[in-house]
Amino acid sequence: MTKLHSLRGLIAMHLLLVRFSFRSSMQYRFNFWFGTIASAVIASVEFAMLAVILTRFGAIQGWTLAESAYLYAVLVLAKALYRSLASDVHHLEKYLVSGDLDGLLLRPVPVLLALMTRNFSVRLGETLLGGSLLAYSLTALAREGAIQLWIVLPLTLAVVLNGALLLFGIGLATAAIGFWLTRIEVLQNMTEDAAHTAIRYPLSIYPGWLKTLLSTALPVAFVNYWPAMHLIKGDGGGWTLALAAAASAAALAVGGWLWSRGLRSYQSTGS
């Protein structure tokens, strides 16, 4: 019962801090809407380039435009959810370099919770784009008889949530390494930016070693590719979804462990 009350307290505190952060960001409405539109346009252009190639050649390694749109949509939605709920975890380096983390340590809330609620932003542009691409993809695949919409849609929403948790776990683990290295931008470029770029496309286009890397040591392929193999391609079984859930649980466990160890070893700029 005590743990339940503590969990409810943390959730209530999180929602309160998010509301304050969002209210603060809305004081600069132009920046908010410009950033929203710009991010949506950038993501749209990236998918448009893929769509042009698929329209010209018909398919890539057996993946049609609708199937590729599914991969892209799930990634965009999962990443938007992750960055909405934990934006400044990704930016831990600036807190370490500037010493601003010391101020968070003095607050009567867990440091991770404080970071997750700072500079909260609703990734509206990416969410709308991802939702539109997902609607197009599922509608096209259902029309072709490749899927049963009433089964795939709820499972896809669960996959998006699981993908967001997986990306958060990887992002948290990468950020936590900053407690020892301080400068982690290059590492983040590999574990987040490059990895996210790679899984926009079917893994079948990559060499075997890279496909293995993205499915094991850095398991971002479980955000969209492996679930899609089961849900829309009909390959593999339900074990792919179970493995995706296991991958996110493992990433969260490793990320939480590294964060806890790193925070204990952190040397304040004032010490």
TrEMBL record:
InterPro entries: ABC-2_transporter-like (IPR010390)
Transmembrane segments: 33-57, 69-85, 159-182, 203-226, 238-259
Keyword Membrane on entry: yes
Keyword terms: Membrane, Transmembrane, Transmembrane helix
Keyword hit for Transmembrane: yes
This protein's name: ABC transporter permease
Organism per entry: Paenibacillus albicereus
